[in-house]
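Quick one:
INPUT:
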């Protein structure tokens, strides 16, 4: 069975130097990809951070996860990511999506699927060195173009189908339940076929919220907050696993229980998880990996084996958000690299 490249999307971003040092550390620990959210009101500039990391690393893949066409014009993003690839040739990707928290915190609305598609096509052409009509007197062209792969992060059926038709790769963001993953892979493949592409040419990745908390009660509570976060933005994801939302609507709950900005990013995930304690444990299991290393290894191997397609990348999104700096050898970055990744790689290789 194919062993995916494992990525991390949370680093010490207290300063540019701290970020670069943390990414270099992750590379030394055995992580395969360092991916950084493009969220201007929560973190320092993504491309400045990535440039600093590119200067001090040799192997690890770098890129935003994710950028969007709302906060920056696509021509700006294309120029930025091509510049990063100059610093780290062949080990850069562009994670692209509609934008959720980063957009909402700025009082803006996430991009529609049509806007995401148009911006992807524009950037793909620019990164390939083509001239693009943008409404200016002359066609736009990127003088420092680089063939950086564009990966669309998606969870809804329309976005997944569109991504299958145009993206180099697709990061599936639907949780861990086999039914949601299978439905997503089907949508990507259908989109590729409709676009006249070979479905096998579209690379696949997955983003799994990973609650590395040894206390099972705390782990379950935080994982319930993850389940609520998925329902908050994509209620249809509860259908394939056969789940039912039995509480008040998420917006009412967020207002009453002071959950901000959403169930995925609340500062106190135990508090936000208790707000949705009406959710059963199998809802937590459908949208997150949870527990200590033994539990997470078992769950992750089972999820990957049950998938109808193999993944090129698996991003293990840390829950709760690690402190900066993290706890060193007892922190998420080191523990996952030491106690989880080798065992998962070994199990997949043995099949």
């Amino acid at each position: 069975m194919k062993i995916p490249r494992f990525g991390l999307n949370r680093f010490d971003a207290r300063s540019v130097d701290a970020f670069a040092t943390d990414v270099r550390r992750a590379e030394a620990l055995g992580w395969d990809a360092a991916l950084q959210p493009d969220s201007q009101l929560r973190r320092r500039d993504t491309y400045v951070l990535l440039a600093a990391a590119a200067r001090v690393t040799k192997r690890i893949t770098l890129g935003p996860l994710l950028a969007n066409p709302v906060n920056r014009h696509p021509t700006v993003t294309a120029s930025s990511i091509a510049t990063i690839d100059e610093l780290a040739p062949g080990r850069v990707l562009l994670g692209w999506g509609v934008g959720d928290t980063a957009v909402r915190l700025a009082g803006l609305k996430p991009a529609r699927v049509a806007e995401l598609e148009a911006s992807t096509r524009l950037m793909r052409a620019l990164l390939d060195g083509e001239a693009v009509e943008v409404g200016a007197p002359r066609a736009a062209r990127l003088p420092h173009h680089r063939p950086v792969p564009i990966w669309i992060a998606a969870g809804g059926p329309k976005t997944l189908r569109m991504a299958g038709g145009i993206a180099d790769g697709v990061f599936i963001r639907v949780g861990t339940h086999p039914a949601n993953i299978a439905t997503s892979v089907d949508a990507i493949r259908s989109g590729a076929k409709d676009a006249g592409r070979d479905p096998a040419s579209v690379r696949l990745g997955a983003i799994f919220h990973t609650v590395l908390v040894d206390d099972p009660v705390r782990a379950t509570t935080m994982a319930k907050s993850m389940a609520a976060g998925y329902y908050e933005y994509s209620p249809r994801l509860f259908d394939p696993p056969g789940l039912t939302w039995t509480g008040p609507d998420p917006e009412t709950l967020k207002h009453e229980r002071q959950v901000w900005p959403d169930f995925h990013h609340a500062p106190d995930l135990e508090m936000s998880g208790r707000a949705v304690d009406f959710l059963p444990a199998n809802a937590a299991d459908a949208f997150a990996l949870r527990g200590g290393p033994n539990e997470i290894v078992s769950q992750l191997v089972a999820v990957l084996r049950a998938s109808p397609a193999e993944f090129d990348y698996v991003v293990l999104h840390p829950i709760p958000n690690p402190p900066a700096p993290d706890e060193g050898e007892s922190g998420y970055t080191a523990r996952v690299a030491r106690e989880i990744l080798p065992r998962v790689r070994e199990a997949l290789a043995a099949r």
